[in-house]
Amino acid sequence: MKFIADAMLGRLAKWLRVLGFDTLYYPDIEDGQLVKISREQERTILTRDTNLLKRRGLPGAVFIRDDDVFDQLRQIGSLLDVSYASPMGRCMICNGVLGPVGARDEVRDLVPEFVFLHFNEFARCGGCGRVYWGGSHQKRMKEKIKGIFPDYSGLPFSAGNEGGH
Ligand SMILES: [Zn+2]
Q1: Per the count of CB atoms within 10 A, which of 32, 75, 83, 107 is most buried?
Q2: Which residues of the chain have pLDDT under 70?
Q3: CA 94 to CA 78: how far, in whole Å?
């Protein structure tokens, strides 16, 4: 299942990407455009806007009632089928699929020296080229995620550089 989140759900969109779900998010998108994209790309709309839900001919849409992002994830948990998720997650910034980095040396010039020396897990966004790295923060995030999705077996990548190609 693919998603498009409304402008009020930026945090939820980021977490869905970390979990590997294809999620579009634009901070200033008009309702009409949001509905158009969801229809064209068969994306479920995630929204906090009850007016949007009243529109006619709306494709699948879910009203998100909670404020807290973890409550929000819990609310839509039944929609989140891991077989649709990218195993290494997606880029928090551009929604591109993260893939493995072949050799560690490939990222030497792409991350801060401190990161290169202290981190071992790296992933790269196939969309924008941003490099992500993992470490102790991944374990903490994984525990949080497993509190909601006990079967989650991925490694969440959330820290990355600003870099391009
Ligand atoms: Zn990216």
Answers
A1: 107
A2: 161-165
A3: 25
The model's pTM is: 0.89
Cα 56 to middle of ligand 1, angstroms: 34
| Ligand 1 center to 160 CA (angstroms) | 10
- In three-state secondary structure terms, 144 is helix
Q: Distance from the CA of 52 to the center of ligand 1, in angstroms?
A: 29
CA 158–ligand 1 middle distance (angstroms) = 12
Alpha-carbon dihedral angle through residues 132, 136, 138, 140, given to the nearest 10 degrees: -150
Distance CA 113, CA 154 (A): 26
* Gap from CA of 96 to ligand 1 centroid (Å): 5
